[in-house]
Every structure is written in structure tokens, then in C-alpha cells.
Amino acid sequence: MIFNSNEPLSKYVKDKFPIIAGPCVIENKDHSLKMSESIKSITDRLGLPVIFKSSFDKANRTSLNSFRGPNVEKGLEILSEVKEKNNVPVLTDVHWPEQCKIVAEVVDVLQIPAFLCRQTDLLIAAGETGKTINIKKGQFLSPEKMEHAVEKIKSTGNNNIFLTERGTSFGYGQVSDMTSIPKMQKFGHPVIFDATHSAQIPGTDKTTGGQRDMIPTLAFAAVAAGCDGIFMEVHDNPNSSKSDASTQWPIDKFEHLLGKIIRVNQACKSVE
What we know:
By secondary structure, the protein is of the alpha/beta class. The chain has helices at residues 9-13, 29-46, 72-86, 97-104, 120-128, 146-154, 180-185, 215-224, 254-270; strands at 19-22, 50-53, 90-93, 109-112, 132-136, 161-165, 168-170, 173-175, 191-194, 200-201, 209-210, 229-235, 249-250. It has a single domain, classed as Alpha-Beta Barrel (TIM Barrel).
């Protein structure tokens, strides 16, 4: 798929099934370049538009001692090189209103983390950049409440919005409510399903645990429910990754899983 950074991202994904994929956190430049090249090659073979994602700062790690990533300056340098060398749009998280303007100079999609989806100042600052904003639904919110987050972005005149379902807190665990997909689609913006964070089991020891083997099941169910795209964190050695090791999907199994997702999507469209 050909990406033109001078054109709106909406044109790149229009009438297609976008994939947002990449390592949870930027580990180093070489790894980011290697992963982005592999991901882009796979999605190109399958005819899917891809947005490379990786975070320069995982500010909500369970433990104080966990790896958070490079700082914003170094992270943006790496994402800029990924974008230039692999001709791929890039996405990263923002945590503070003050970060939005500088991050928007490099990335194509600013992501609002789930824990921060109600932070008015952050949402407005992100919206004012004019970039596409991916708002992850808070684990603590009903899908209906996400309309308020959408309206905060739209108040800036920015209608370039994705919403991402990433699982819902249930007791001390987490479940996925697939009805949230059509409910949030009523707001008039694409709804992406995060198949990897939805497989997490929060609060396991000093890191967040998860069930990697459930990722395909969750992805297929979300596609059947009508999601507009899939978000997946992928890694070449998930068990040794520096963040979310239990729920990153192996890159060597990525193409096979995406192929199945495409077939499920096609089957569902055939019965519409």
C-alpha cells in the first residue's frame, strides 16, 4: 500500500481494513526499523494499509522499575526514521497536553491512552494539532460514555478520529464486550479493536499478565462484530520484550493470523 504523507490519513485507509501494529514500546532504533520493515512487507503482501505503532514512553507501567522507553526526543527521531525509510504512517501515545504539538510534527496519529481518555486538556490539545486522533476506550467506561471524548476532539474542528476498544475491567480482571463496537460506531468514526490489550490480565505480580493464545479468538469475534480495523502489538521475540511480554503477538505468526482475519472479514461481508 502506498502512503503519501502529504495527503490526509483518511485517504490511505478509506474503504479498507487498516491494521495498527508494532512493538508495545520503542526498544531501540534498530529494532524499530527491523519490525516496521517486516510489518510493512507482510501487510503489503496482503493488501492491507498499516500504521506502525510504538510508544516512546510507557508512563503507566505496573512497576516503578519497569522499562518505559526512550524519551520523547529520541523516540520521535526513531519514529521519523521509520516513517521515512519504510514509507509508513506512524502512531504513538501522548500523555500531556504539552507533548501534542511536538509529537504532531512527526507522527500521523496521536494516541490517547485508555487511562487518559477523559482528560479534557489532553484531548483538546491533541485535537488542535489537526492530526488523526486514536482514542482508546477506558477500561472503566461504557462505550456510550466515549461520545464525550469524541465531542472534546470535535470541539477543536478536528473530525479525524479513531476509537479503539481494548477491553473492560470486570472485578479484578478484564472482559471484551463486542457490543461496544457497533455502539461506538454510532458516533460516526471508525472503531478499531485492540486484540492484544484485550487479552491482558491486569495486576499479575509486577507486570501485567495475559493470554496470548486468546488473541486470535478475540480478533475474529471483533471482526464478526463489524470492527473497522485491528490493533495488534507484535514483536520478534515477545517473551523477551521489554513491555507487555505476555500479549505481544509473534511476528513470525503475524501474516498467518492476518490472513485468517481477512477471510473472516470477507465471510461476514458476504452475508450483509
